[in-house]
């Protein structure tokens, strides 16, 4: 299934968190926190400005981003989990 976000929305696939602590202890799935990093899967056309123009987004498909812990809406499509968030919820683009 293809997904095309609207306006300034971004579809992100979370990056899996490390299953080991720094000390080498394995962390069970139910005790792990959700990752705040993800890969951009799709972006909308841009933010609609008050004057009717569309401002292009700063992120693009393929970027790895850092976003807020409670940002966005989680959705499940064809068995895959994604987060849909607004551009303003993106904290940084990782290089």
CATH architecture classification:
Roll
Which stretches are poorly predicted, pLDDT < 50 over at least 5 residues? none
Mind telling me the CATH class? Mainly Beta
Oligomeric status: single chain
Mass-distribution shape: elongated
The figure for the number of domains is 1
- Count of beta strands: 8
Main sheet summary: 6 strands, antiparallel
The residue fraction in helices comes out at: under 10%
Write the H/E string, N to C.
EEEEEEEE
Strand order of the largest sheet: 6-7-1-2-5-8
Rg computed from alpha carbons, rounded to a whole number of angstroms = 15 Å
- How many helices does DSSP assign? 0
How much beta, percentage-wise?
35-45%
The name CATH uses for the topology is 10 Kd Chaperonin, Protein Cpn10, Chain O
* Alpha carbon gap, first and last residue: 28 Å
Mean pLDDT: 85
Kindly name the structural category.
Answer: mainly beta
CATH homologous superfamily assignment: GroES chaperonin
Notes on the structure:
This protein has no helices and eight strands. It has strands spanning 9-14, 37-43, 47-48, 54-55, 64-67, 73-77, 80-86, 90-94. A hairpin with a 2-residue loop joins strand 6 (73-77) and strand 7 (80-86).
């Amino acid at each position: 299934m293809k997904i095309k976000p609207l306006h300034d929305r971004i579809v992100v696939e979370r990056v899996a968190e490390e299953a080991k602590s720094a000390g080498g202890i394995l962390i069970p799935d139910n005790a792990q926190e959700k990752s705040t990093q993800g890969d951009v899967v799709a972006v909308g056309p841009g933010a609609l400005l008050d004057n009717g123009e569309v401002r292009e987004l700063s992120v693009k498909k393929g970027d790895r981003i850092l976003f807020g812990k409670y940002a966005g809406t989680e959705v499940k499509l064809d068995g895959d989990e994604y987060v849909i968030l607004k551009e303003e919820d993106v904290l940084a683009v990782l290089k």
